[in-house]
């Protein structure tokens, strides 16, 4: 028996009229042969593109990859090109379309077939009204659906302790974390780092104002806009803790170098040392050259003590460096033996103005009228005084 193969997906060919040869125009209709050839070539190209699209789609599906998502909109140039393709097909088929013509055009432009149908419907309606065909979207500027910001209006009603993270805030608003993250990127909401500040009484406020007024230049008080003094004669001192090492450090080594080994007895209790620092404002000449860096000195609160007992790590009497217990007696000794000689060593010789050492109101600091400190300063020939500022003034 003879087997015959039929493709059930192909539409059957249209029957020709009796007495007329196949692929010839009906009687009474004249077709330009050149136009017919151009139409046939365009149809062949479109069929070829259709086959390429189908092969690409089937190839992606066979390979297990995700299919490409269709676009939701088209540019005006693409819409006009789609209309011209539909118009060419319509002319070639005697004012009709085959079953998959619009689907082919939709696959070429990677949009849904409903977009192509809508373009053709708009063009047909305009031609029926005698208007010029215009299939552009007509969208200008920032068009499209605007996002709803109803959720943002509820943010001020959420307690601050529930707004510390985006996830916590999203849970309170009943939205997803991604929604708030997008709003943050669009700058619809902002991130704020908040820091505690000292509570100021009325007395503290007046002291702040007095401190600011004390820095005004008295010679400019009569001017409409008074000026501040240069503050070059003020030396700031303060203490700071520094750890001997860190948990994690980064080093740059040669390939053949061995990795360094750092050990401590307990990594939760790394040794630390307190430093005393004294600095002032740097000074420059008329040409911008630095004449005084303002760096007076940095000193450690340590003491060298011989070991009282022997151990497996060192012999008895070995000099050990240990942190010093900072109190007012130790601070007075450092001010007399370290700070004052450091100021005398680096202070500009042409500056004869009084030098003010400004310190905070810590209990370990010496008082401004300390007698031993005044005697030590008198031997240097400098005019050095100590001034204290309250904690509520220094904290910002």
From TrEMBL:
Gene3D superfamilies: Ribonuclease H-like superfamily/Ribonuclease H
GO molecular function: nucleic acid binding
Superkingdom in the source lineage: Eukaryota
Protein name (database record): DUF7769 domain-containing protein
Organism of origin: Aegilops tauschii subsp. strangulata (Goatgrass)
Membrane spanning stretches: none
Span of domain DUF7769: 76-130
Positions of the UniProt region annotated as Disordered: 1-31
InterPro entries: DUF7769 (IPR056671), RNaseH_sf (IPR036397)
